[in-house]
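Hey, resending since the last one bounced:
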Amino acid sequence: MVWTKKAVGTGRANFPVQYDLSGRVEVIVKGSKTQFIGDCAFFLLRTSWTKFLCCLVGAYLILILGFALIYLAEADGMICLIKDEPCDFWDALNLSVHSMSTIGFGSIVPQSALAHSAVAVEFWIAVLMGAGAGGLLFSRVSTASSRVAFSDVALVTNIRGCPTVTMRIVNERPFSSLFDVTCRVSALVKDPKAGMRILAPCELERSTNMMFRAVWNILHRLDEKSPLYGLDEHNFADKFLAFVVQIEGTDQTYMQKVFANKCYYPTDFRFNESFEDIMTMGTDTITVDLKGLSTTRKVADRSKRLSFLRANTFSLDEAQKIAALQVQKDEVDEAKEDEDAEASASTKPSDGFLPSEDCRVTASWWRKVIAAFRHGRSV
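The structure tokens again:
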């Protein structure tokens, strides 16, 4: 368990505290037995290099200062060979440094039993500390770690006529690709009937990636197979609690398994938005701008079109096909920008047909699409 500043000075400081990898959810484990040495080693393996080196330097300074005070208290039991005066704090500090590093220049010699005992204890602590620090350092260097950046938000947008959750990840080490990458997503939802929370698996459009080197969009369709089926932006937080994403792959350099995960909560979801493009294709290079990893833009809401078609006795497949035709026509209209498009844009459709004012399609065109679809003709 990792002790955190948030628990210090409160009644919860008696219990180990953990955070998930996104740092958002605090977990307090009561009744567990704290193993100080094992927990410290785990912390030193997981923390950043800056904190790791600061902990080693801090432990070294505390030890040499502590034994220096012991030597200073036993100043009469030590002999300084380079001067006739009694040993001061500087002399005691030098003796502590020499004993800790097993140098022993011989300028200060312990005489009393307490001074000899302190030197022996400091020597064994130095040996154990050096071995432990070396083992931790080797373990950190020899263990592969992933640098996969997740987008801060997850988007819910209609893709091919179906609401789809989209998350974006980027490999921050393009010089070391990840092979045989597998992505698994689970949704933590409330089950009112069972009165409990369920971690339900979510099926992805593509859950594997043979070589993950740059950018990967993770897509989950909110269809009948999804545990989030039927939820929208108004009731999303009523049933849904969290989205857990886990990435597993093999590092190209270390040839070891690496893992990365991220939790998305209801406040992290954005509706009717899409990610900005962060990849630029050059002649010989691919440039990825990490600053825009979580940058989004608004898109037209086409969700009510599908609801309208379903309400008019169309099956889900038929409604999705008609909605896909509408998407294609929108793209053509935006590219042409002619007088017909301007006239179509100025025609405000009724609420029963189109939900968005910027959808440049008239009600007559919808009737034409529906009639043609029922008779098996193309539009």
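Confidence is low (pLDDT under 50) at residues 1-19, 348-362.

Sorry for the duplicate.
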